[in-house]
Amino acid sequence: MSARYLLRRLVQVLPAVGAILLVAFVVIHSAPGDPVLALAGEHGDPEHYRLIREKFGLDRPLPEQLAAYVSRAVRGDLGASYVHRRAVADVIVERLPATLLLMGTALALSSAAGILLGTLGARRADGPADLALRGTALLGYAMPSFWLAQLAALVLALGTGLFPVQGMTDARSAWTGWRYAADVLHHLVLPSLVLAANELALTMRLVRTGLVEALATDYVRTARAKGLAETAVTRHALRNALLPVVTVIGGRLAMLFTGAVLVEGVFAWPGLGQLMLSSILSRDTPVLLGLFVLVSLAVVLGNLVTDLVYAWLDPRIRYE
Q1: Distance CA 89, CA 314 (A)
Q2: 87 pairs with which residues across the strands?
Q3: Is 69 in contact with 289 (CB distance < 8 Å)?
Q4: Contacts of 136 (CB under 8 A, 6+ apart)
Q5: Based on CB atoms within 10 Å of each CB, which residue in 56, 77, 164, 272 is the most buried?
Q6: Among 4, 103, 1, which residue's Cα sits nearest to residue 313?
């Protein structure tokens, strides 16, 4: 991969994020509801409403508000939250680790288990194990995250008592050190499994399909004819089968965050998804715009990383 290509892709980040920000700004400000009423209540004093609008610049025309926001955003200032009365960047950074932990765990689980189960299905194509895995994957992919999250909370948390229902830690305990880490992992189990379910099903089906095709190619038959062990043959073919998987995983970061919003809402996980839900209800526009900027940056950079990994997996690919 040439440095010119990498530089060109990095330069394309700003226009892409700017376009997403413009659309998000127009959509958020066009949505029904008034943030002033959410802040001051529906039965407040008109003079108080006027002062709030002046304080947050909501009395200005929409194009002027957009220009002011963009001029601050390019300097790294995402504004102040209406509700939290703090800088938006501070509010987001405070919640970011919880969401990264949840999404990272779900992505690792879905990728590792999806590749393992997809490989198992491909090596026993159309057998009982393969049919069972394909049926389970189809069922898992068809289940909405919010429904699966509520089912897991009712059956596995409330029903068995083996897992906590909500939160990231036990509010009744003040653990530190390894006990705190164990408490977080205990609360992480259900949300991460629910969030990983859809991605695991998709990854497994992609790996299984790609590996079945790869195992039927000439170079695999040649490797078998030379006496190469079946495990080595599968590992060799898996490298080519992973190319579409890498593409899909890199392009589904936004979908993973969407699922995290719903899962965090059900399990009261204190991350960005929970912050987005509360900001929508309170019409906290600066926080919503800051989250859109963060997600759009993650998606654009995720696609760039996908291209890098794609070229590493297949040395024949050259970006100019």
Answers
A1: 38
A2: 80
A3: yes
A4: 201
A5: 272
A6: 1
Confidence band of 155 (pLDDT split at 50, 70, 90): confident
Q: 66-102 pLDDT, tens per residue?
A: 888 888 887 878 888 888 888 888 999 999 899 889 9
Task: Determine how many CB atoms are found less than 10 A away from the CB of residue 264.
Answer: 26
Ordered structural domains, the chain, with CATH: 97-313 (1.10.3720.10)
Amino acid letter at 166?
Q
Block residue for tokens 């939290």: 84
Which residue has 């195992």 as its token pair? Answer: 215
Amino acid of residue 249: I
For 256: left if phi > 0, alpha if psi spans -120 to 50, otherwise beta; the answer is alpha
Q: Which residues contact 239 (CB under 8 A, 6 or more apart)?
A: 313
The residue assigned the tokens 């943030």 is: 35
Task: With CA atoms as reference, report the closest residue to 273 among 286, 291, 299, 289.
Answer: 291
